[in-house]
Amino acid sequence: MTSVDFHFNTPDRLHHACRLVRKAIRSQAATDQKPLVVFCSLAERLFAFDDLLYSFSEDDFIAHVHHDHPLADESPVILCQQSWTPELPRVPHLLLNLDDEVPDFFSRFDRVFEIVGPDEEDKQKARGRFVFYRDRGYPLTRHDLAASAPEPS
Fold first, then answer.
1. pTM (predicted TM-score)
2. Secondary element (H or E) of residue 23
3. Do 18 and 54 meet the contact criterion of CB atoms below 8 Å apart?
4. Fewer CB in 10 Å around end: N or C, the chain?
């Protein structure tokens, strides 16, 4: 069954998503090489995330392409804006949802990441997604970034 991780109290949703993608790619580099899918139906947000992947770290390059790119079969990160069924044998097991809604294909993945920004509108939409998953019995894990943030000096 798909498990869902909520990362909330993130100061910047897209920057946190970049760090999460980097961590996931590093952790699976020595294992199965399954791609991670980043979904967002909102073109402006997905393209902003695409651009940010190139610039958020001077030390890391995270190879990524859109799902319809010829190299999608080889890329560790696939960006998609619509429901998508990957070709076998590279079925992805991680989904990073940057959308405001639950994607209709989320249950094809072993694990889903939901990131919640600081503004009230984002929190409200995330509550709806949380209730959706909870009411259907999906295992949920909460990661409160405010609780783990260092005290300002």
1. 0.89
2. helix 13-28
3. no
4. C
Give the pLDDT confidence of 23-38 residue by residue, as tens digits: 988 887 545 667 899 9
Mapped onto helix, strand or coil, the DSSP state of residue 140 is strand
Q: How far apart are CA 7 and CA 27, in angstroms?
A: 18
Residue 17, burial from CB neighbour count under 10 angstroms (0-12, 13-18, 19+): buried
The letter for the amino acid at 144 is D
Cα dihedral 106, 77, 100, 81 sign: negative
Write down the residue that tokens 């993130």 correspond to: 10
Asked whether 90 and 34 are in contact (CB, 8 A), the reply is yes
